[in-house]
Automatic annotation (TrEMBL):
PANTHER family: UDP-GLUCOSYLTRANSFERASE FAMILY PROTEIN, UDP-GLYCOSYLTRANSFERASE 72B1. It is an enzyme of class 2 (transferase). This is Glycosyltransferase. InterPro entries: UDP_glucos_trans, UDP_glycos_trans_CS. GO terms for molecular function: UDP-glycosyltransferase activity. It comes from Sphenostylis stenocarpa.
Length: 468
């Protein structure tokens, strides 16, 4: 029996940062049962039921340690969720250090893997004689932004959104400054400073584990590997996604039972991630657009908010269905189903009645759709979602992006047009075909292809160190 290898992982708060890093741990353990992973989880408050239920399903060689929540009253109010996540991980540093100290007093630690928002924790690795790694839960294109961010900062004066020429990183599809993530949209802000610090820190680790795969982003991955003569050791191990373990029994029954009654490939699934919200005006236009398109739809609706990321860390309590246009549900009852706030997305995407996904382009949703071969309509809201949308439309050609008017609203006619195009027309069929090809590549990468070989390499390296 091989000697045990001990790995510590630090996540950042938020369901969609916690799950991918733990799913990575599960894959690692499946690959090497002699590994033992301790996952350290900073938190803003008591974990939501969804996270608690999820953490209870872990195998015995993954331990989770929930850190004491940071004092909410001492956190800035009304700020961007990225800032809250960043501040929470920063304030949790003393507790992270304590946990690492206690772990290392029992067994030597081989590697410390930290979520990108917990970048400061990577500095503890040296003290505990461990290697340091970042876990990057998004695309190689977004990682390119972090890697090239400090140079971009030096080269450009003024705001990026005012650039008239596209930004082009090696191996990536060009994109406009307005499509940069929120932290890069205001260069005098505090979150921009943190973004630059994260960018500088990420190049200093012993490696970066990234949730993407070679066949999806060959150009960006190869360019990153070549950057600075191999300065960066990149480990693309994706797509790593959840396998549908959420406990949403009622809605799950309802959605899946309804899907069972629809023809194959006929339903557009509409969802904006774990916390994306639309304004009331945009909810109306989307409802009318869905109706006008005449297509079948399954819409996960959240109560309106003028800030798109408002519900990301804190769900609204109102019943979202009351915000639909009058008699909408009655008029569309033959064609559509609207469910409040949450639905079992992974199971929905894998249902054969689903033929398209209108998504905010969060990276997990993107990968889940790729794994099921479902083509997309991109509707990015915040974070790096606009860059993901550019990659999916201009780069991979598996998605359509509706146009938004001067007030930032997608109007009903435009929405109906892109829905019909994706679901009924030849252009959409081409996208479906390319997505199916990508699905096949994703399955291969995980079976015995690129991502599994990469994970093996990394595991071998860690194992060899723990045997010294
Ligand atoms: N999700 C879900 N049901 C919902 C909404 C979201 O299961 O109704 C899951 C989805 O499958 C994905 C995650 O929540 O795994 C959303 O992650 P993503 O990175 O796409 O977006 P974020 O929530 O970070 O904006």
């Amino acid at each position: 029996m091989a000697k045990a290898t001990y790995i510590a992982i630090v996540s950042s708060p938020g369901y969609t940062h916690l799950v991918p890093i733990i799913e990575f741990s599960k894959r690692l353990i499946n690959h090497r049962p002699n590994f033992h992973v301790t996952c350290i989880v900073p938190s803003l408050g008591p974990p939501p039921e969804s996270s608690k239920a999820y953490l209870q399903t872990l195998p015995s060689n993954i331990d989770t340690i929930l850190l004491p929540p940071v004092n909410k009253d001492q956190l800035p109010q009304g700020v961007h969720p990225v800032f809250l996540i960043q501040v929470t991980t920063m304030r949790s540093l003393p507790s992270i250090h304590e946990v690492l100290k206690s772990l290392c007093s029992k067994a030597p630690l081989t590697a410390l893997v930290v979520d990108v928002f917990a970048y400061k924790a990577a500095e503890f690795a040296k003290e505990f004689n461990a290697l340091s790694y970042f876990y990057f839960p998004s695309s190689a294109m977004t990682l390119s932004l972090l890697i090239h961010g400090p140079n971009l900062d030096k080269e450009v004066s003024g705001e990026f959104k005012d650039l008239t020429e596209p930004i082009k990183f090696p191996g990536c599809v060009p994109f406009m400054g307005v499509d940069l993530p929120d932290p890069a949209q205001n260069r005098s802000s505090e979150i921009y400073k943190h973004f630059l610090e994260r960018a500088k820190a990420i190049g200093t680790a012993d490696g970066i584990v990234i949730n993407t795969f070679l066949e999806m982003e060959p150009g960006a991955i190869r360019a990153l590997e070549e950057f600075g003569n191999g300065k960066i050791r990149l480990y693309p191990v994706g797509p790593i996604t959840q396998k549908g373990s959420r406990n949403e029994v009622d809605e799950s029954d309802k959605c899946l039972r309804w899907l069972d009654k629809q023809p194959p490939c006929s339903v557009l699934y509409v969802s904006f991630g774990s916390g994306g919200t639309l304004s009331q005006q945009q909810i109306n236009e989307l409802a009318w657009g869905l109706e006008l398109s005449g297509q079948r739809f399954l819409w996960v609706l959240r109560a309106p908010n003028n800030s798109a990321s408002a519900a990301y860390l804190q769900a609204a309590k109102e019943d979202p269905l009351q915000f639909l246009p009058s008699r909408f549900l009655e008029r569309t009852k033959e064609k559509g189903l609207v469910v409040p706030s949450w639905a079992p997305q992974v199971q929905i995407l894998s249902h054969n009645s689903v033929g398209g996904f209108l998504t905010h382009c969060g990276w997990n949703s993107t990968l889940e759709s790729v794994q099921e071969g479902v083509p997309l309509i991109t509707w990015p809201l915040f974070a790096e979602q606009r860059m993901n949308a550019v990659m999916l439309t201009d780069g991979l050609n598996v998605a359509l992006r509706p146009k938004f008017n001067e007030d930032g609203i997608a109007e009903k006619e435009e929405i109906a047009k892109v829905i019909k195009c994706l679901m009924e027309e030849e252009e959409g069929a081409g996208m479906r075909e390319r997505m199916r090809n990508l699905k096949y590549c994703a399955a291969n990468a995980l079976k015995d292809g690129s991502s599994t070989r990469t994970l093996s390499q990394l595991a071998n390296h860690w194992e060899s160190l723990s045997e010294i």
